[in-house]
Amino acid sequence: MFNLANPHFFMRYSSPLVTWSGSLAALLLAVGLVWGLVFAPPDYQMGDTVRIMFVHVPSAWMAMAAYTFMASASLASFVWRHSLADVAARAAAPIGLGFNFLALVTGALWGQPMWGTFWVWDARLTSFLVLFFFYIGYIALWEAIEDPHKAGRAAAILAIVGFINVPIIKFSVDWWNTLHQPASLIKMGAPSVHWTILTPLLIMVAAYTVLFVALLLMRMRTEVFIRQIHRLQISVAAGKAG
Amino acid sequence: MSEFLHMGGYGAYVWPAYLLSAAVLAFMTISAWSAYRKHKRLLHNLEGENQQVGKR
Q: Which residues of A touch B44 (CB under 8 A)?
């Protein structure tokens, strides 16, 4: 039987955390959206398509951050066998998948007016598509294997193995000759983006991050409920039979 | 206002990007929240049932 290590500490503290992070995310989103859509100036080269950056960069960032979280939680589940690590990894996956999807589509919407194409098989875009497939594979493994313990182990292996893709994505624009532009935020030296555009961008990144935390905790709590429900269903059935 | 919608000629790209982002984020939030509430209610009902079964 699947034995869930005592999650009482987690359940007690995650409840107010969900409310707080959810509210903070809503606030940051509101500020970031208004700033990005109304007050940020058009770029001298890109014009108003620069506003797509305010939804593209945060979703791409979160797709990678969520995968990193997933891989770390998977490793923790292997090393410490703490079942909450399993729960955390599983909860993060669909959220990361959503961000990954958004990054791909908003990127395509930027690419068409700017490069003249929705898609190109350069290193950055291709490795990001690979990440998308890893997310799908991870979720599919959880669904496909009946025993949650075995499913967790198989999915954890996939997550850990797939993590090599994350630094590849990050450095792809340096290692290969890509159409996607090189790093302008996290690189040696200061960010090369003007503050009038950098500020709403960072607010949106913060908004997406906090939203991820809120959704992750909510999904983890749900997963804990599901496991408790299974245990209780067995207990109720046994009680009725006895 | 129409300039805002026009987005310097790029409106057909900027607005779908924002609308799709809003839709996906809203979907993720709603789906997480409704699953949470559904299972919380289920667990609550089951705990009640379990107590009754235990008393028999």
A: none
Question: What is this structure's pTM?
Answer: 0.91
User: Could you tell me if A70 and A96 are in contact, meaning their C-beta atoms sit under 8 angstroms apart?
Assistant: yes
For A170, the token pair is: 């990050």
B33:A218 CB<8 A: yes
Q: Which of A37, A59, A236 lies nearest to residue B53, judging by beta carbons?
A: A236
Task: Say whether A228 and B43 touch across the interface (CB within 8 A).
Answer: yes
- Shortest Cα distance, chain B CAs vs residue A98, angstroms: 7
Contacts of B26 (CB under 8 A, 6+ apart): none
Number of Cβ pairs < 8 A linking chain A and chain B: 98
CA angle A31, A35, A37 (to 5 degrees): 120
Count other C-beta atoms under 10 Å from residue A201's C-beta: 24
8 A C-beta contact, residue A67 and residue A134: yes
Query: What is the ipTM score, two decimals?
Result: 0.90
What is the per-residue pLDDT across A80-93, written as a single tens digit (0 to 9) for each? 888 899 999 999 99
Distance CA B18, CA A200 (A): 14
User: Which DSSP symbol is given to A90?
Assistant: H
Spatial contact of A66 and A96, defined as CB atoms under 8 Å apart: yes
